[in-house]
TrEMBL record:
Pfam families, per database record: GGDEF, PAS_4
Catalyses which reaction(s): 2 GTP = 3',3'-c-di-GMP + 2 diphosphate
Compositionally biased intervals (Low complexity): 136-161
Gene3D superfamilies associated with the record: 3.30.70.270, PAS domain (3.30.450.20)
Protein name: diguanylate cyclase
GO molecular function list: diguanylate cyclase activity
Species, as recorded: Massilia eurypsychrophila
EC number of this enzyme: 2.7.7.65
Residues in GGDEF domain copies: 344-481
């Protein structure tokens, strides 16, 4: 059952008050709507005692406009999170309805006797400024073959006749009108000449345009930027050949200049737009549905960011913060293929901290970890080219990939790295060959004939590293040809 609210604003109650345009709750100029509210109580309910009228202020106006459908005695039902007491005046509104139902009036008549003529459904007409259709025939008409005429007349608000008198088709039409204004998406109807005949309540605060302002105007005058767009093509195809279309997200995520309700200078909301033709009598119309999918986009973006950060983390060594073995493998493969393709040079360094077992045994594992991290950071700091890669190869072993670097250049750079690590002055354990932490480095370079794969290159660098160890540590050895 539909609900009927009897309303009067505090301003309206003042005698002799001059009617003047009022700004509606969306901050939009909507004189018709304000006037409708002001005039209604007196015109339609002269017999209701003044003291029983509600004195509504703006917050309640907003609430009622948003939650105008319910049953007598319901708490405002459109928003289940709200209860009657949440908005000042709403509880009163419902009490008022109860009172009207339960208690006899001063003149002894049961309120049911005066309720019928007072029945009004306050359904926002999108700022149309029209009187609601109070004649019972209007509801019925809107459901029959004259819907097209009703659309042209812009009847987005419809009257509710007493239920007993309602015709089935009229009731269906009323429900449709309510649904159009309650759905959580934008609905625009255009006729065969692309003029707007339907503009639901959702559109008003997001476009900054009331139904009264846009009704009868060309869609492309209201939104000039849509000219030449995929939306225009889709609307024309719908009107000319009856083809429905979804506007692909890839072409534009926000074709209509719509923003969060009430935010006229923020970013546009992301939109899913569909265009559907329909016929009414001999005339073809087109329905444009606009759904706000900003939330979906935002969630997608967050998921992508999360996936990206997981991927990045999966390539980082947890202890030292430089690339891990997994990344080293991927990078070496990529650089080798590049060198093979372009005939370029590529050198690989394998580095090992000398007598690190002694270090660990003397200072303990935690200090050992700190030493590994310091050496790793020193190594990374020495590799400045964007394509260079410093990685922890495993345990106390590190690797460096040096693209576009010959064996001779790599040897010089390896010595700089070794000296830099030595210069850190990290104290070694007693009994080590040096008083500070040092590196041994094995070097191998890409060779198209013999060392053209990752395994061969790593093996050659490894052998050079062990040669450096055998030769006394703290030195660079180049793999033999
Ligand atoms: N603290 C710490 N120690 C590690 C880690 N990974 C490997 N090590 C230690 O590194 C040491 C490597 O020792 P060895 O392989 O015998 O080689 P070394 O003592 O460095 O001697 P040379 O390589 O011949 O100079 C071992 O004691 C490992 O426990 C790590 O992540 N943290």
């Amino acid at each position: 059952m539909l609900s009927f609210f009897l309303l009067e604003s505090a301003d309206d109650a003042r005698p002799g008050r001059q009617a003047h345009p009022r700004t509606d709750d969306d901050g939009l100029d909507d004189p018709g709507y304000g006037q409708f509210l002001r005039q209604r109580p007196r015109r339609h309910h002269p017999e209701v005692p003044r003291q029983r009228r509600l004195r509504l202020r703006q917050p309640l106006f907003r609430h009622v406009r948003r939650h105008a459908v319910g049953r007598p005695g319901d708490v405002p039902a459109a928003d289940p999170r709200r209860r009657a007491g949440d908005v000042p005046g709403v509880g009163e509104l419902h009490r008022h309805q109860f009172d009207g139902d339960r208690h006899p009036r001063a003149d002894g008549k049961h309120p049911a006797a005066h309720r019928a003529p007072c029945q009004q459904l306050l359904l926002h007409d999108g700022g149309g400024g029209r009187e609601p259709q109070t004649d019972r025939g209007a509801a019925a008409r809107a459901g029959d073959g004259r819907t097209a005429a009703a659309l042209r007349a812009g009847r987005t608000a419809q009257a509710v006749a007493p239920r007993a008198d309602r015709q089935e088709s009229g009731a269906v039409s009323e429900l449709s009108a309510h649904a159009v204004n309650l759905v959580n998406c934008g609905i625009i109807g255009v006729d065969s000449s692309e003029q707007i005949v339907l503009w639901n309540t959702w559109m008003v605060p997001r476009s900054g345009q009331s139904a009264a302002r846009v009704r009868g105007q060309s869609l492309f005058d209201v939104f000039p930027e849509l000219r030449g767009s995929r939306v225009e093509t889709a609307v024309q195809a719908a009107l000319k050949s009856g083809t429905a279309a979804n506007i692909p997200q890839s072409q534009s995520s926000a074709p209509f200049p719509l923003r969060e309700a009430g935010q006229f200078d923020g970013a546009r909301i992301d939109q899913a737009v569909s265009v559907t033709p329909f016929n009414e009598g001999k005339e073809r119309f087109c329905l444009i549905e606009i759904r706000d999918i900003s939330g979906v986009f935002e969630r997608e973006r967050r998921l992508l960011d999360h996936a990206e950060s997981l991927r990045a983390r999966s390539y980082v060594d947890g202890l030292t913060g430089i690339a891990n073995r997994r990344y080293f493998d991927v990078a070496l493969d990529r650089e080798l293929r590049r060198a093979q393709r372009l005939g370029g040079e590529l050198s690989l360094l394998l580095m090992d901290i000398d007598t690190f077992k002694l270090y660990n045994d003397h200072f303990g594992h935690l200090k050992g970890d700190a030493c590994l991290t310091a050496v790793a950071q020193a190594l990374a700091a020495m590799l400045k080219r964007p394509a260079d890669v410093a990685a922890r190869y495993g345990g106390e072993e590190f690797a460096a990939i040096l693209p576009d670097t010959s064996a001779e250049q790599a040897r010089a750079h390896a010595n700089l790295i070794r000296e830099h690590v030595a210069s850190l002055g990290l104290p070694q354990a007693p009994g080590a060959a040096r008083a500070h932490v040092t590196l041994s480095i094995g070097l191998a370079s890409f060779d198209k004939q013999r060392r053209n794969g990752a395994a061969a290159l790593i093996d050659a660098a490894d052998q050079a590293l062990y040669a450096a160890k055998r030769a006394g540590r703290d030195q660079v050895m180049v793999a033999a040809d």
